[in-house]
Amino acid sequence: MNLLETRALTASYGQFRALFGVDFRIEPGEVVAIIGSNGAGKTTLLRSITGILRQTPDMVIHRGEAIGAMAPDRIMQRGISMVPEGRMLFPSLSVDENLRIGAQARRGAGRWVLETVFDLFPILLERRNSPATALSGGQQQMVAIGRALMSNPELLLCDEISLGLAPVVIRDIYAALPLIRESGAAMVVVEQDIARALSIADRVYCLMEGRVTLEGRATDVTREAIHAAYFGTQEKVQP
Amino acid sequence: MIWVETVIQGLLLGGLYALFAAGLSLVFGIMRLVNLAHGDLIVASAFLILMVVEFSGLNPFMSALIAAPVLFGFGYVLQRVVLNRVLGNDILPPLLVTFGLSVALQNGMLELFSADSRRLPAGGLENQSLNIGLATVGTLPLMTLASAVIAIFLLNRLLYATALGRAFRATSDDPVTASLMGIDPKRIFALATGLAMVVVTLAALYLGMRSNFDPSIGPARLIYAFQAVIVGGLGSLWGTLAGGPIIGVAQTLGAQINPEWQILSGHLAFLIVLILRPRGLFPRARD
Ligand SMILES: Nc1ncnc2c1ncn2[C@@H]1O[C@H](COP(=O)(O)OP(=O)(O)O)[C@@H](O)[C@H]1O
Ligand SMILES: [Mg+2]
Q1: Residue A238 has pLDDT above 70, yes or no
Q2: Which residue, A228, A205, A236, A230, is CA-closest to A49?
Q3: In chain A, what are the domain boundaries?
Q4: For the domain A4-231, what is the CATH code?
Q5: CA A48 to centroid of chain Cα atoms
Q6: Which residues from A are below 8 Å from B177, CB to CB?
Q7: A198 with A127: CB under 8 angstroms?
Q8: Could you give the 3-state DSSP secondary structure of residue B94?
Q9: For the complex shown, is ipTM > 0.85?
Q10: pTM score > 0.95 for this model?
């Protein structure tokens, strides 16, 4: 059974329509990449799943239950967790407090507690009493990931965790993802870096202008197919 | 010597202003909501305490203890049912709604309790005084200041040393991201207003024991509270604790020079701070 799926999901900002009937699914323990250029609707898809953008109930199904109209806090308490785009740490809270507040939606015991998060990102232990926003971009991203893990989610949604970071830092952060996967969490990884996304994903979706233009196993999709889905080159080629 | 005594009296008066201001400061700090009905809520709370006193025969302190949970519930429901609906990026709707609430409270109290001045029976406490060396001070004003210090200390502990306080601060930073932590921002805001009403109960207790009150005096209490918050720095509870006595000392010094200048001097001190330090004396780092 699918852990989570969206059915003909549409989303709008006022008059502007950002998603046109997106069908998306993820199974327990699976890692799914969502790629697509700026403005394709990737973040909007995650906002719809987490309830930040409310939808009609049956557009989002979690474990067979329609959750499209639920408030984010209730959705998070079902075992879903998000690393939002831009990290969105709480500036008034220290690193330690940012991590602890992630445990607010925890339902039971699990692998992720402060100690295991510090094992995953040792640098955070040294900085645990600093204000979160005093950290470097990469360290802030680690806090954002750790914060999302603290609820021991079954489904972790990561929105562009490499955005604005130096390549060495991105490498460190991506090195943590297999360890997170080992803990049993399914992951949705939104990325603009196609190669990076394909390297860790079981399946991949490509979004363009609010529509799914490609869906397939990461090992099956060809470079050409991705290029076409990502940039929409086929539509622009005149016969 | 008279000046030392005047300053001490001002500090003590400032304790009352800090109590008036603490609830306002808390609510502003957590949800950027300026509650224009704050003064009227203090007066209404004083009437509620008075009703408990008259009904039960208990002293005002015990009566306030009974009134506090009722007022917590009132604050919670007020936030949940009314104020949460108007909070947003636009600051005008909450101002209009709390202004409306202020007018409604004043008229409601006038209907229920008439325009007569009332007072909480402090059982002679209002006439007692203590010699603290530099001056002889009233026991009740001293208790007021001590209560203000303790209340603000406890509020700070709550904000910075408990899980609830962490949720308050996170929600204040960013309600949307807080909701991604499994927090319901509307419930957090309701708890904050409930908590502010408990502080309002304390303010009402001392207001009612120290002076006469009637349904019309709320707006002036709001002004003093507001000035204490601004002088101390928006969003800073310790700043508020400093702000109250600054307004208080300015008022007693002014009154010492000319009795008619009491209120005016408070306003002048407020203006001077505003000109020199537009963000107040102890502004919170980020807003
Ligand atoms: N808050 C918003 N208000 C209006 N339009 C928005 C808002 N957020 C995103 N959009 C628009 O919706 C479309 C999809 O945006 P988004 O989901 O953020 O794309 P992506 O994450 O793929 O870069 C874009 O055209 C963007 O301009
Ligand atoms: Mg995005």
Answers
A1: no
A2: A205
A3: 4-231
A4: 3.40.50.300
A5: 12
A6: 84, 88, 90
A7: no
A8: helix
A9: yes
A10: no
